[in-house]
Amino acid sequence: MVHNAFDAVQIIKDSTVKIESIGLWGPRLLVGCMDGSLRIYAPDSLLDDGGDYGYSRQQGEEEEKEKEQQQQLTLKPSSSRQSLYVLRDTRIGFSKKAVVAMDVLQSRSLLISLSDAVSVHTLPDFDVVAHLTKSKGASMYAWDEERGMLCVAKAKRLFLYRYDGSRDFTEVKELPVLDVVKSMAWCGESLCLGIRREYVIMNTVTGATVDVFPCGRFAAPLVVSLNNDELLLGKDNIGVFVDHNGKLTHSNEGNLSWSEAPGGIVIYAPYTLARLSRFIEVRSLRPPYGLVQTLPLREVELLLATDAGLVAATTHSVYRLLPVPIGVQVVQLAASGNYNDALALCKLLPPEDAALRAAKEDAIHIRYGQYLFDEKEYSAAMDHFAASSLDLTTILRLFPSIKLPAVGIIYNKEIGNSTELAESESEPEEPATEKPVASSSSDHAADSVESTLPPNNTLSPNEANPPDARETKIALGALVTFSMKKRGAVIEKAEAEDTEATVAAMVAGAQHRRVKSSEKVLLQEIGTDTLTFARELAIVLDTALIQALLATDNLTTALQLLSGPNFADVGACEDVMLAGGYYRELLQLYKCNHDHRPALLLLNRLAEHPESFPVPPKDPTQFGSKAIVDYLQSLEGVEHSLVMDCSTWILKNNPEDALKLFITLDPPLPPALVLSHLKENEPHLQMCYLEQVMQHHPELNSLDLQNELVQLYLSKVLEERSDLNSQGKWDERQHSEVRQKLLAALESSSYNAERVLQRLPVNGLYEERAFLLGRMRQHRLALTLYAHKLHESERALAYCDRVFQSSSPGLWNSTNTLSPLAPGSQPKDPAAANIYLTLLDVYLKPQAAINEFDRSIASLAPLRGFVNQRTNVPPRMKGTKKIAQIEEGAYYSGQSVSSESAVDSGRSEGEAETLEQQSTVSAEGIMLEEALGLLSSRWERLDGAQALRMLPSDTKLQQLIPFLEPLLRKSSEAHRNAAVIKNLRRTESLQVQEERMQARKRMVKVTSDRTCSICHKRIGSSVFAVYPNGTLVHFVCFRDPQSKPAAGP
Asked: How far out from the chain centre does Cα 918 lie?
């Protein structure tokens, strides 16, 4: 026996007549006897008027219920005198035969009885309502209170009656049955019948039957209806639960098993009672349907359970089964360790005891959780702790391996516990005094349950049988599950309080804008150091959760938790992570708390000195420079000083990662800061850094950076030249990778050319000097370098093309030909227009060009007199023909070019003498072939007459054919085109004159009826004007600027 759920009290002793049936009518007991009489018993304390048994209906049901409750409270096992019922009345001749069954319908004030037939009487007058004659010889009946249906079983027939509240029962239907009914009960609109060999469910509307399963071998069929549309069917000593369709409902939870085959079963939630041969057995209706109590009542023939109570009867005695108060049962169950049953009973406490119920459940959950934890059933224990009112810090004391943070709730908890312990030790022991009796047994139960708990609901680990490593890991896994369930609400509340505190601080700051600076600092410190309770609880929970996840090897979950919003305490977790070798998790913890410097120092130490850690990392390479770069890249708005400090070690060990760090940070670092840092630590990386900055961050490109990059390129090239010169391997025409970059930068970048020019050597790097001179618009010196120092006429010609194209982009197309231009179009820059004549002069006067270059080198300043100076051209002779350039894209439009004879005849004697002297002076070392090649390939871009004057006088005409032939052909074509255009324009002029004459021949007829389109008066003989559309107006109206003629003739 687990606990006492019922107390058996004998209320009728040694009846003189054999008892056949019993019924409860409020506080009264109706007994059907063997001789057909009906006896009415009542408690001795229940008095009625004049000693009459009757209970007037007019007194009201409320009074009856109140007296019933009072009677039940007075019935206790210890007061035997009060427990006996007194015979109040006897109805002789109530029935002709023994009353074998009866039911009291409390709500309808009716009594249904079965003797020779089924009869219905009123209460309390016992007037006959109906005597069902067809039920004569019936064996049993079943009443459905909800629908007012009565089913009577007689032999192999069923008779259905309906009671509609009037004075009679109406027969509804008669249904055949396969065999004699041994037991039956209503289930909705159906009846569950226990016949000789099986159970069937019959639909009372259609008459259809469904077989459920066979009955037992030894015991008779037994059908009991439950309150939840379920049925309990007996099969020998087994009770099977089925629904109204006959399907098993508790197949996964087992069946109800009795000690022996019961003779009858009643339901009194949450228990079921079975009438056995030697006792009444009480079992729980909750799986696994355990034994609750055995009541030592032998030879019980009747067992009745109604809303009025429980009654058991033998042939001559009747016992009242009084339920023990729920609170007392809870205490008994909790004391015996049946916590689940105790919790289930707590739910049956009345609603008015909600506070008491909550206190009981809380105390039981705590005790049960402690018990399960000691039994090493950690998951179930944590579930009960979660259902209790225990705070998180108390639960975490069960886990000594968890290091808690130093926050207020932990500190206050420790102080409170120590204070209570000291007070309990110092309190003198009071003498025992008689305490007042509690108002109810439930209060005693609450005190009993709570008195078994430790003071202040504290928990302690099982020191007598501590868990081993495996069990500790399982316990921490249960803690992880518990914490994850609670975390959502705790974090949400903490974040809400943080938001409220931030808003309050902003409002306070706005209201105290005039507070002194010292007071402001004090207010800020107070607001920062004060933590709310919700935030402290979140810190404790996240700190414990992280440590539990690490201890249970849930590293992925720990990293995910640390990567999101969390409140884990660094001080509490740091030592645990270092001791366990959880370095990635520690880095993430530093990062989420914005402790970036310790994180980077840890990465550096892991890479350089992994042996200094208690648990060396398995793979130190994963914590090297790449890890530092990745960490810094993941930050937003990182401090520049932090990056500079961390990059020093990376520069020494892995310069590529350092450059990647400088380039990929978002937002990028100031280039000036990075260059200064590189100059102090790794100067050779400056050039590579600037290249990547200009490639990946063009918005940072500036003149200073381009100047710096060009200077770095030049320094590297000068260093290479010095090394190769010392080895005798320097070649001016060979281009190393750095020199190619320098030339590309000189060609495309924006930089200070004069500053770079000053660093160039006098006897080398001519190509770079040519780029610089060209950038300074000293084209003659640049061409001198290409022609006479580098001896590369093709590059000199390419230089001229580049200058010409940059000055006149509209004249050039992708096919290296001139695009057609309107007459008069030419390059706006004179130096660009004469660039080819300058190259021709450099070819034909080499010594003068070299001397000029030497003078510019000596003074480091170009001679302006020789820069971009066009050769003087003698005036044109009268009579030369102008070449009309009409084709779009021609260069020298309208430029007069003399024929060879005109040029020769037009030269004066002084000019001829000058040319002769020029040819004589420069005939030595001139580049005539290159000059002739220039004339033949670029004839359309230079002044042919001037070029001819610059050639030596001994130049043969045969050599000039490639130059003169296309030039003359172009001139002749232009002349012919001009003549065609002239004729076309003359024809167009004649056509216009003809149209004008036709227009003047138009005639307008003015009649006497013709009116002015403006004033609408007759024109008559007045002077008039005619518009082109034929509209006539007075001349006066025509002269008026405000007048407008009407449309139409």
From this structure: 87
Q: Which pair of tokens denotes residue 558? A: 């720990």
Q: Residue 43: helix, strand or coil by DSSP?
A: strand
User: Residue 373: what residue type?
Assistant: F
Find residue 211's DSSP bridge partners: 200
Q: Coil, strand or helix: which one is 493?
A: helix
Name the H helices within 614-765: 625-633, 640-653, 655-664, 671-681, 686-696, 703-727, 737-748, 753-757
For residue 144, which of 86, 116, 185, 184 has the smallest C-alpha distance? 185
pLDDT at 709: 85
DSSP 950-985: HS-TT--HHHHHHHHHHHHHHHHHHHHHHHHHHHHH
Q: Are strands 169-176 and 157-163 parallel, antiparallel or unpaired?
A: antiparallel
pLDDT < 70 regions, the chain = 1-2, 46-83, 167, 251, 408-458, 509-531, 808-828, 859-924, 1046-1049
Structure tokens at 111: 């009594």
CA distance 204 to 370: 54
Enumerate residues 6+ apart whose C-beta is below 8 A from 944: 897, 963, 964, 967
CB of 45 closer than 8 Å to CB of 83 = no
308 neighbors 24 (Cβ within 8 angstroms): yes
| Terminal C-alpha separation, the chain | 129
C-alpha to C-alpha distance for 1026 and 309, rounded to whole angstroms: 128
Residue 175 confidence (pLDDT): 94
Find how far residue 793's CA is from the centre of its chain: 68
CA–CA gap between residue 843 and residue 968 (Å, rounded):
24
Q: Which two tokens stand for residue 948?
A: 């001819």
Do 9 and 83 contact (CB within 8 A), yes or no?
A: yes
* Distance from C-alpha of 300 to C-alpha of 289, rounded to nearest angstrom: 23
Per the DSSP assignment, residues forming a β-bridge with 119 are: 113, 131
Residues in the chain: 1049
pLDDT per position as a tens digit, 634-675: 887 778 888 888 888 888 878 888 888 888 888 888 888 888
Q: What is the pLDDT of residue 452?
A: 47
> Environment class of residue 19 by beta-carbon count within 10 Å: exposed (0-12), middle (13-18) or buried (19+)?
buried
**Residue given tokens 């990075």 in the structure block:** 674
Instruction: Strand 28-33: give its sheet, edge to edge.
Output: 19-25, 28-33, 38-43, 85-91
Give the C-alpha distances (Å, rounded to integers) separating 509 from 495, 504, 520, 1029: 21, 8, 9, 83
- 887: which 2 tokens? 């084709």
The span from the CA of 596 to the CA of 488, in Å, is 27
Q: Is 984 exposed, middle or buried, given 0-12, 13-18 or 19+ CB atoms closer than 10 A?
A: exposed
* C-beta separation of 283 from 6 below 8 A: no
3 state DSSP class of 657: helix
**Residue 277: CA count within 13 A, CB half-sphere:** 5
User: For residue 64, which amino acid is it?
Assistant: E
User: Which tokens go with 31?
Assistant: 């007994």
Does the model's pTM come out above 0.70? Answer: no
pLDDT tens digits for range 165-201: 776 889 999 999 999 999 999 998 999 999 988 999 9
Two tokens, residue 337: 């360790």
| Closest to 293 (Cα-Cα) out of 252, 338, 263 | 338
Token pair in block for residue 288: 């696994």
Kindly state the DSSP code that residue 259 receives in the 8-state scheme: S
Closest CA to 308 of 254, 266, 370: 266
Report DSSP state, residue 907.
Answer: -
Please name the amino acid found at residue 182. K
Q: Residue 759 CB: number of other CB atoms within 10 A?
A: 13
**What are phi and psi for residue 521, nearest 5 degrees?**
-60, -40
Contact 317, 28 (CB under 8 A): no
Q: Is 1010 helix (H, G, I), strand (E, B) or coil?
A: coil
